TrEMBL record:
<protein>
    <recommendedName>
        <fullName>Type-4 uracil-DNA glycosylase</fullName>
        <ecNumber>3.2.2.27</ecNumber>
    </recommendedName>
</protein>
<keyword id="KW-0479">Metal-binding</keyword>
<dbReference type="InterPro" id="IPR036895">
    <property type="entry name" value="Uracil-DNA_glycosylase-like_sf"/>
</dbReference>
<dbReference type="GO" id="GO:0046872">
    <property type="term" value="F:metal ion binding"/>
</dbReference>
<dbReference type="InterPro" id="IPR005273">
    <property type="entry name" value="Ura-DNA_glyco_family4"/>
</dbReference>
<feature type="domain" description="Uracil-DNA glycosylase-like">
    <location>
        <begin position="27"/>
        <end position="174"/>
    </location>
</feature>
<keyword id="KW-0004">4Fe-4S</keyword>
<keyword id="KW-0227">DNA damage</keyword>
<keyword id="KW-0411">Iron-sulfur</keyword>
<keyword id="KW-0378">Hydrolase</keyword>
<dbReference type="GO" id="GO:0006281">
    <property type="term" value="P:DNA repair"/>
</dbReference>
<dbReference type="InterPro" id="IPR005122">
    <property type="entry name" value="Uracil-DNA_glycosylase-like"/>
</dbReference>
<dbReference type="Pfam" id="PF03167">
    <property type="entry name" value="UDG"/>
</dbReference>
<dbReference type="GO" id="GO:0004844">
    <property type="term" value="F:uracil DNA N-glycosylase activity"/>
</dbReference>
<comment type="similarity">
    <text>Belongs to the uracil-DNA glycosylase (UDG) superfamily. Type 4 (UDGa) family.</text>
</comment>
<keyword id="KW-0234">DNA repair</keyword>
<keyword id="KW-0408">Iron</keyword>
Length: 188
């Protein structure tokens, strides 16, 4: 199955209660040949309205960091979320909602077979890396699991609130560029 077929299936998903309050399912965006996959938490208001990931203020910041290391969601990476439908009032996804939605992300993984996965924020990092992952203490560290390199960094929305973390976040993206040079074949 390809990503477009999977997207079509996902767009009609009713596996969890978030389907009742969404405007659009936010399946993901990027190129099907991506070796680098970014995983956020879940859609916010702008994403819910447009059906695309990271298109609000935090998305503009993410795009700046991507641009700085020669990544572009339309050229050489892919962006997805733990939950594909917006949690009301932007609350954290409930464990049951993340659990219900994970099969979609697993299928995205299976199709893309990324070399590097960057978890944006605690919710994604604790799902994808380790249940007790600390972004503050462990951001920027690459951890290999089953032949895939995982790294957790600050969520862009958190960086908009806590600007003092921006230099650390930027350093994580520079470390990402280095890692891409080492393990990716056609990203650069
Ligand atoms: N925050 C996220 O975690 N994901 C998005 O797609 C947008 C904002
Ligand atoms: Fe389906 Fe995920 Fe949306 Fe829940 S959040 S309805 S599991 S796509």
């Amino acid at each position: 199955m390809d990503l477009e077929t999977l997207r079509t299936q996902c767009l009609s998903c009713t596996r969890c209660p978030l389907h009742t309050t969404r405007t659009n399912v936010v399946f993901g965006q990027g190129v099907p040949t991506a070796e680098v996959l970014f995983v956020g938490e879940g859609p916010g208001q702008s994403e819910d309205e447009q059906g695309l990931p990271f298109v609000g203020r935090s998305g503009q910041l993410l795009d700046k960091y991507l641009f700085a290391i020669d990544l572009d969601r339309n050229q050489n990476c892919y962006i997805a979320n733990i939950v594909k439908c917006r949690p009301p009032q932007n609350r954290d996804p409930l464990p049951a909602e993340s659990e219900a939605c994970m099969p979609w992300l697993r299928e995205q993984f299976r199709i893309l077979q990324p070399k590097i996965v960057v978890c944006l924020g605690r919710i994604a990092a604790q799902r994808m890396i380790r249940a007790d992952f600390s972004v503050t203490k462990e951001h920027g560290t690459f951890i290999e699991k089953g032949g895939i390199w995982f790294m957790g960094t600050f969520h862009p929305a958190a960086l908009l609130r806590q600007k003092q973390n921006k230099p650390d976040a930027f350093a994580d993206f520079l470390a990402l560029r280095e890692k891409i040079g080492q393990v990716c074949e056609h990203t650069y």
